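Figure 3 (text version): structure tokens given as input.
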């Protein structure tokens, strides 16, 4: 099946495993809710979503109990868990879905990319988008190079979160980074007005500079005047001009 990007939201498939995960999850997480923490977390995340108030160590400990004894998921199970978690309002359920996908992304094919697109563009903020970009989209593209054509389209999309995802999907690729695409995406969005895109440009370049600092220095020596100061500053933070 080819990857499609238009049309209605992905369908939630039937999944007995997802039924069990969601039953356990929606019992475990609210039992540890902390309203005081929830208010602070919601404010920190600019009211993108309500929170239960679960700090990360507590949430991850509860997640382990939720998944204890359960089998590894198939792709349909991953789809069902992710979409059903995303349909719940509290942000911690979205975090559970992201963590679940990070652990099981190797069990997903390129056909999973439209699901990830839905997650990136629904209730989007950096706290979920960045992890999905580096730990879900990145591995999917690495496993199926044909998906680079989708990244090309995302890098030029009107949605800044798709642009950010395209910029960041190679964060963990190191020597396998497609440098031409990385630099090309950065140039394509060099004049973008959005903070999160400008920041992502700098972050993507800074991360690749750990692998090839001379390439990043040379690229910015040639093209640096096309970028916002924020992007250049972030890119050169660890290697200097």
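Below: residues designed for each position.
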């Amino acid at each position: 099946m080819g990857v499609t990007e238009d049309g209605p939201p992905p369908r939630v498939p039937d999944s007995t495993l997802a039924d069990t995960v969601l039953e356990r999850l929606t019992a475990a997480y609210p039992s540890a809710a902390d309203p005081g923490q929830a208010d602070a977390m919601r404010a920190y995340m600019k009211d993108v979503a309500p929170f239960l108030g679960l700090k990360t160590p507590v949430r991850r400990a509860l997640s382990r109990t939720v998944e204890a004894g359960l089998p590894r998921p198939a792709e349909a199970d991953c789809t069902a868990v992710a979409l059903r978690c995303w349909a719940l309002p509290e942000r911690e359920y979205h975090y559970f879905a992201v963590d679940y996908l990070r652990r099981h992304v190797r069990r997903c094919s390129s056909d999973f990319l439209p699901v990830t697109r839905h997650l990136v563009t629904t209730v989007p903020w950096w706290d979920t988008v960045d992890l999905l970009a580096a730990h879900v989209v990145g591995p999917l593209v690495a496993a199926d190079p044909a998906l680079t054509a989708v990244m090309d389209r995302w890098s030029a999309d009107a949605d800044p979160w798709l642009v950010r995802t395209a910029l960041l999907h190679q964060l963990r690729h190191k020597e396998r980074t497609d440098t031409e695409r990385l630099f090309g995406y950065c140039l394509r969005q060099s004049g973008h007005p959005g903070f999160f895109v400008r920041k992502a440009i700098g972050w993507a370049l800074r991360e690749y500079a750990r692998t090839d600092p001379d390439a990043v220095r040379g690229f910015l020596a040639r093209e640096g005047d096309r970028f916002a100061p924020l992007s250049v500053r972030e890119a050169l933070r660890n290697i200097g001009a």
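The chain has a mean pLDDT of 96.
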